[in-house]
Amino acid sequence: MLQLSSPGGYGRARSWRSQRSADLFSPLRHRAYRHLFIAQVAALLGTGMATVALGLLAHDLAGAGAGEILGAALAIKMVAYIGVAPFASALAAKLPRKVLLVSLDVVRAGVAAALPFVGEAWQVYALMTVLYVASAAFTPAFQAMIPDLLPDEGDYTKALSLSRLAADLESVASPVLAALLLAVMSYNNLFVGTALGFVVSALFVVSAALPALSRAQPLPFVRRLTGGLRLFALTPRLRGLMAISIAEAAGGAMVFVNTVVLVQSRFGLSGQHSAWALAAFGLGSMGAAVALPRLLTRVSDRAAMLWGAVIMTGVLLAGSVLATRYVVLLGLWAVMGIGYSLTLTPAGRALRRSSNAEDRPALFAAQFALSHAAWLIAYPVAGLVSAAADPSAAFLVLAGLCAIGTGLGFVIWPANDPADLPHVHDNLSAGDAHLADAERTEAGAAHAHPVVIDDSHPRWPRRPD
After folding, report:
1. Please, which residues have CB within 8 angstroms of residue 75's CB and are 6 or more apart in sequence?
2. pTM score, two decimals?
3. Which residue spans traverse the membrane (predicted)?
4. Domains and CATH numbers, the chain
């Protein structure tokens, strides 16, 4: 469900880190966050089993053309996420958080319970559309609450790694669990586990003491709807983050769409082998998530994410030649998981750094929609190229897409991105409170502080000459 750093910000970052425990699990001492974390794990575990079952269902319906069905289903997911998330975030600003989250979990549980009874591709598409619309409303609202629950940046960074670790444990545990269950039952029964996961998630959301909505005057609806997109357009690091999302989607789409095609059509192995291959990807991602809190004390978010994108590009290129045996695929997917986690986990940190509390829900919703726009490109490419040519061609095409995103990230996200940005104001009156600590220069009032786009900074500020 559910992301400082620059040479200029390292000293301060190290100071609070040196005072904090290295315990990755310290955020779980917060009761409300602990309950939400358990809710996330339950929903993820169920969703993971559904992912395995959906791949097997697609293979049952279309054989070697399963990638086309999966690509289409996942493209529907992206359309729902892109279209619904900003509106849902804007509308949810006046809705009780707990009622909203629980209602969406109940809808998702109902869809999961119906999936074992489908027999046609269009039925899969219809049910998954409902599921994805509910998830598009749920996920940004869930993610935007975490900074409110954990205002300390050290705790929040650890929470991001815990969230990534939970997703990675799911990607390991649910395929393993699915592989074991497939030995004694039909894959259709795995959808029951998905429904139970959403029910457990709803119960833990009910039990959590969630932060109340602000009593301040809510922002106008249009600003709530478009404010996040405006922040992305005007903040250089966020534009770089979107470029990296293209690389992340290219690597992830190859894994999620074509694992079943490679394992069961190319190698002639079973659904259990597909589950183990997905688990290898999860293990690599989990290892990176565990290492990231320490790594991010030494390197910037930008460096970690860009090198993750480089890793994924390399794996895709290597896979076009080397993915001819199952054991090699397991190794490729483990390395791909490392790159994937490096590109994904620090994103929340960049989002938090680039927004005020009042704009954060809109920014998370915008990131959710915009990043999934990249997946909307990558999923159909992964499925259609694989079905029309072969998986090796899909490896190469997606490697090109991944390289484009990586290159754009290096260019767009400034390498010098300090926590306190020196800049000059020439748009504020001399008595403005924001300029209390500013130094008067010929160009205007100069000072340095963490910058976000707001009323005092309607555009990204220019540096002093």
Report:
1. 376, 379, 380
2. 0.69
3. 36-57, 69-92, 124-144, 165-184, 190-213, 240-263, 275-292, 304-324, 330-351, 363-381, 393-413
4. 7-211+220-412 (1.20.1250.20)
